[in-house]
Amino acid sequence: MTTRGQTQQFDKALFKASVEKHLVTTYAKTPETADSRSWYLAVGKALAEISTGSLLETEKQLAEQNVRSVNYLSLEFLIGRLTGNNLISMGLYEEVSAAVEELGLNLTDLLEEERDPALGNGGLGRLAACFMDSLAAQEYPAVGYGLHYEYGLFSQSFEGGHQVEAPDAWRGIEGYPWEVVRPELGQTVGLFGSVETYTDKAGTICRRWVPAMTVEGVAWDLPIVGYDNKSVYPLRLWECRSPAPFNLARFNDGDYVGAQYGQLEAGNVTKVLYPNDNHDQGKTLRLMQQYFHCACSIADILRRHFAAGNKIEDLAKLESIQLNDTHPTIAIPELMRILIDEHKLGWDAAWAISSKVFAYTNHTLLPEALERWSESLIADMLPRHMEIIFEINHRFMTLVEEKWPGNNEIKRKLSIIEEGQQRMVRMANLCVVSTYAVNGVAALHSELVKRDLFPEFNELFPGRLHNVTNGVTPRRWLKFCNPGLTELVNEKIGTEWPAKLDQLSGLAKFAEDKKFQKRYLAVKKDNKQRFADWVQDNMGIELDTNAIFDVQIKRLHEYKRQHLNLLHILSLYHRLLNEPTFDMHPRVFIFAAKAAPGYALAKDIIFAINKVADKVNNDPRLGGKLKVVFVPDYRVSLAEIIIPAADVSEQISTAGLEASGTGNMKLALNGALTIGTMDGANVEIREEVGDENIFIFGLLVDEVLKQKEEGHDPYRYYHADSLLRASLDLLNTDEFTPGNPGQLSAIRQNLLDGGDPYLVLADFADYVKAHEKIDAEYRDQATWARKTILNTALVGKFSSDRSIRDYVNNIWKLKAVSVK
Ligand SMILES: *Cc1c(COP(=O)(O)O)cnc(C)c1O
């Protein structure tokens, strides 16, 4: 792997000594007794020593220069392993590889010892991680604020084909080598209690919150290392601890266990990440997590602001706070409370600051994902915040009355408070009203936000709604995960592209070059072999790298339609066995996905795919043409070996329901051809690579809406299409669950009698046709090579560096600051 100019002073002998020192003093192992894991920990600590120094230096220089910065607030950061990526950013990959070799170790093996910090569910958390990488790479001053969950997203295994969840203790017993605790940054957070009125010295009547309990927030920093520069930004994760280890009164009463109860309960606040993706569960503890996250983060932002000698009035000049979805919305009333109750600003002065500080990113139109909290729950846990939310709404309703006099229907629709048996606070409405910028995450999605979700808000606040199309960091998602392709690209267009991804377009002129095509396909083959070896070693399934590797990796969700993919597989199974003239190129269908533990149908789909896999992988009648692999425990480090090995990228959500997708970008960048609907960023990928280099199928957004309006009739498709009928009916047999018919029929039921809410049946025939086209085109390797090369060449737009520049130019208005 070629690295660019190393950005850190590196002395190999010194580094080796540091590794050995940590091995002995931090991990209590000798070089003779150390196993691979201890060596990884020691190497990680030795590197973290370097990055922590740079983090403090960056912090110091930015404070001195007192520059404007962005604070990225997210309940999730799905960062994945840090060691390999940080080595690349530090420009030390080769040097450290050589150093550890002299210690008798292999760097690639050591990197495999790191457990993924899985502090997120899927795309939303991964986006936050890519954005931190791109902020640091381009030196736009930033702090990421998240939660230090003791357990990240559950780890997944399969038993008899069923998903089994186990806790994910990502830090291990020894702790995570890259994190550093910052005790001096601790915060105290109130909860529950009441609001009282008092008169201050000036005779003004004031309100203040008197919490009934407090918990302590402890800051842990993870270093976000800037690629090819000297900046290191903090990803600051808050851990909740109880204020006092013991309740002394109880302890002296002899109630030893009860005395520690407070600690246990407070520890619970950041104990575990909620495992839902695109679904709001509305649990009390989740609201507590959200408030804890916001209270610690806002307090820390203000601490930095004042430490640099600034006045509260200048907050909006120096700080922007980006809310990653509505999860951190409670930060808005929290800042208002501090401005009014603690800094004694009047409402208008406080609002003038707050409404210029916050910006909000919308990630979904799915109604079940739009957060609403019951008013009574907020009033109980955060009584002063509820008062402030009411006041924001009251003033907003006055505005609505001015714009649409006497129109109660519009008021009901736009109000932050939803009336009903139990009044609810609509967090998205609170965000749109209280921020200076709202953005969707792909062009189509942002249009739908304007047109369907918030049309009146768009009229009321013209210019507030933006688009920022998502992106992915090319450092992790090409340079690190695909060294073979990296080397080939370097040879053709030089080594600047990881920081300037548009330069990949320089590859387009080699798309027809036979020699280049051969080498590009050889790299793909090597990557397929690397993954096939992994599957052989870990799952005992043998894969043929001449087959088409067809990949769908993402959270399991009905709207993502893994069951459409499954129906296609069943149709191939049916045709191979029943159509004498049917022929197909060998195909391996690769799935990876976690289902939320409470999502029954999603778990049924996993079970069905696993059962179908068992059968087809061992059915000699299929002549090895069809294989299905469901890789357990989908996570960033698994994506890093699957994506470079993919020929086909499945992006098949019901049009209008996937806000952007970023898996689609990673896969196209690594040369997989997309089969996809006109949804999310697929639309823009098609624009970039050209219609000939992508396989688009299915209903368009407005066709979906029309069909839903007119009443979608699944049985119409069932009766009209014999292949669909045969595929669906296989789910009612015991073909895949010998002796147990009906074990897979829940999916068929949902699609036929359940009304097929995601229009799987409506898109089936067109999907099958698109796959036939893929089959034909793959057989012509020169054509396929051209298309796959052009995919890599033409997706430079989807670098998260470009996303961040869009935010910087249109929303945050930051200047880059180069750290010396
Ligand atoms: C990129 C990524 C996602 C998002 O995938 P989509 O296909 O956009 O839903 C989810 N999980 C992991 C581990 C990822 O790397």
SSE map:
Layout: H1 12-26, H2 36-65, E1 69-73, H3 83-90, H4 93-102, H5 107-111, H6 123-138, E2 142-147, E3 152-159, E4 162-168, E5 180-191, E6 194-199, E7 205-210, E8 213-225, E9 232-241, H7 248-252, H8 256-259, H9 261-269, H10 284-307, H11 315-318, E10 319-324, H12 331-342, H13 347-357, E11 358-361, E12 372-374, H14 375-381, H15 383-403, H16 408-414, E13 417-418, E14 424-426, H17 427-434, E15 437-440, H18 443-453, H19 455-460, E16 465-467, H20 474-480, H21 483-493, H22 514-539, E17 548-553, H23 562-578, E18 587-592, H24 600-616, E19 626-630, H25 636-642, E20 648-651, H26 663-669, E21 673-676, H27 682-689, E22 695-696, H28 701-710, H29 714-720, H30 722-730, H31 745-752, H32 760-779, H33 781-794, H34 800-812
Parallel strand pairs: 1-2, 1-10, 2-9, 10-11, 11-15, 15-16, 17-18, 17-20, 18-19, 20-21, 21-22
Antiparallel strand pairs: 3-4, 5-8, 6-7, 8-9, 12-14, 13-14
Helix pairs in contact: 1-2, 1-4, 3-20, 6-34, 12-13, 12-15, 14-15, 22-33, 23-24, 23-30, 23-32, 29-30
The protein binds pyridoxal-5'-phosphate.
Residues 122-123, 126, 554-555, 635-636, 639, 661-663, 666 line the site of pyridoxal-5'-phosphate.
Could you characterize the architecture of this molecule?
The chain is of the alpha/beta class. It has 2 domains: 12-55 and 69-147 and 175-469 and 805-812, 3-Layer(aba) Sandwich (Rossmann fold); 474-798, Rossmann fold (3-Layer(aba) Sandwich), CATH 3.40.50. The chain is built from 34 helices and 22 strands. The strands form 5 sheets. The chain has a 9-stranded mixed sheet with strand order 5-8-9-2-1-10-11-15-16, sandwiched between helices. The protein has a 6-stranded parallel sheet with strand order 19-18-17-20-21-22, with helices on both faces. The mean pLDDT is 96. The structure holds pyridoxal-5'-phosphate. Residues 122-123, 126, 554-555, 635-636, 639, 661-663, 666 line the site of pyridoxal-5'-phosphate (PLP). One of its GO terms (biological process) is glycogen catabolic process. This is Alpha-1,4 glucan phosphorylase. It catalyses: [(1->4)-alpha-D-glucosyl](n) + phosphate = [(1->4)-alpha-D-glucosyl](n-1) + alpha-D-glucose 1-phosphate.
